[in-house]
Write a structure and sequence with these properties.
By secondary structure, the protein is of the alpha+beta class. The chain has one domain (7-16, 34-488). The protein has 13 helices and 15 strands. A hairpin with a 4-residue loop joins strand 6 and strand 7 (106-118).
Length: 490
Amino acid sequence: MLPVLSVAETMDDFSSLMQLPIRNVEEVKSTAAQASSQIPGPTVYLDGKTPLSTMLSPVKKGHAVRYLFSYPVKANGITLNETHIMMPMYKKIQSTYFRKVQGMKIEEIGVANQKYFPQKNGAVFGKNVTVGVAEKMLGYWRNKLDITALKRAQTSSNVTAPVNVVEKKNTLVILAAGASGMGTQILAASGIPDKMTMEKIREGTLVPDRIGKKAIKLRRKLLKFFKETVPSTEPKFSFASCLHWDDVQIDEIKGVVTFPKKTRLSTYRGTQASAPFTAMDFLQGVSFWTYHEPTGRVELHFSASIHSHWPDPKGADSAPAMVYYGSYDGDSEIGLQPAAFNPVPPSEMAYQLSMGASLYPDDYSYLFQPRSALCQQSKIDTIKSNLQMLPMILGKMAMNDPNASGAFAAYVADLLPCAAPFVKPAGINSSAFNIYDAAVLSHAAMEVPIPYQMDIIAGNDWWDIDVTLVPLAEGLKEPGLTLDEEDFDD
């Protein structure tokens, strides 16, 4: 039986919490924030009380972020016809990816493991969402790699706390993330979901040629990188991420998502890193699917009109959160400005929970223990038992039952030991469980279908990479076809 924790019960051990000083983030001015084109956005309170300023910043032209995902067809069980691409649900699918972040001038390349699932009741990104993807991005190259969080872990006292102490701290972190309404705050402060963006995407049907031509450049960079490079070493960085689509059809009988080819789709994305740097990003924009005949691969192209970047909470006094925004169609001058606001007031309860968690030491080794130590059969049995209670808990949360948040936090805390492969970052002993981890895991627990939470969230295959599927040249069909760029002009 899943215990229902009241906030009072959770706080019993912290009745004499010392009121720690609050960082004055409102007065912080970063170099980027002084650009004349940027304007102040809303203030948010990740821990319930400490103010974090945001800044709205337009990109010069086009979209704020562009992604390309490239999937081998046969090895992933993907099927396609003249009009649609069918992606199987509930199983791991591997792709290579390229990401270009305009506002931050970042490019990166890696491998993404994804698991698709239906969302019949919508999602936090909007009621029209019908498809979700849980994702682990494993990065091998990035032109700018922040190692702030890794340095913090390496210079820590490397405390290894008793398991019951770590788990109590983790539960408090999860409770604090929920009590602060952190997810609601940062989505609204990002201006997501933006209704005009959705409407503009739906006004069009086929993908404009200009977007397709920009996608070619991303493919070329992937081809160049993987021409001779196979990721035989450990990833240098990683992200726990999600993807969501509006109004995409599911074939429950065949167990597939049916994506129309070369059709603009309203799309959302969340991504989070814990080490070597800590950050969270939310995105909204347009995506489309194609089949690239020369490589025999299916491609997903995602371009974000809105991109919010949320900094390391432990270093939030050095920079504001940034909300970058571009055009609707990826080609015109700035066409939107996010309707950014924060509907959630500060919460003393969330702050006290955050401060209670901070009194426990950070254990940078917990998430990196062998699965046999973290996810024992007793844990698995507990999770399976708790899953029977989850529909009732989520229903009570929807009705604002004051006890439901504690019960949900207890479920997520029990799930964490078996979900460590999904949550943990690259490296060994590089990060302690933090508020962004809590938000990601809670989001997944709310939206992944209950019968598949063990296979998807608590799966042990998130870090498995089939190196034979990585090079894009692996799928070349025509004898003698080379990787010269001109061979890939569409």
